[in-house]
Amino acid sequence: MATEEWVRVADYDDVPEEDTLGTEIGGVPVCLYKLDGEIYATDNKCTHGDADLSDGLIQDGCEIECPLHEGRFDIRSGKAASPPCSEDLRSYPARVEGGVIYIKLVQA
Ligand code: FES
């Protein structure tokens, strides 16, 4: 599902600070992150294998470490940041309005 529409995905308070929330929008697994109060969104499936990044750990303030082989991605851009991950994640525009998180399922 790709859309130009902003889609409501969660309440702002549902995402813990410096942590993740895995969810799904129209069949697309999405991972939400809160870093210094800012919300970011990427695909939840690791590009290296069958792992949910929402089960991973945030490292160095802006990277998500995959729980399976400990590869990393930059949460802000989706860029692969350390091996074995080499293919970037899709990242999505996110905004918060009235305590609600909206994202667009288009490439950020
Ligand atoms: Fe994520 Fe291998 S499945 S690093």
From TrEMBL:
Key word Metal-binding present: yes
Keyword Cell cycle (UniProt): no
InterPro entries: Rieske_2Fe-2S, Rieske_2Fe-2S_sf
Cofactor requirements of the protein: [2Fe-2S] cluster
Protein keywords: 2Fe-2S, Iron, Iron-sulfur, Metal-binding
Domain Rieske: 6-103
Family label: Belongs to the bacterial ring-hydroxylating dioxygenase ferredoxin component family.
Name recorded for this polypeptide: Non-heme iron oxygenase ferredoxin subunit
Lineage of origin: Bacteria, Pseudomonadati, Pseudomonadota, Betaproteobacteria, Burkholderiales
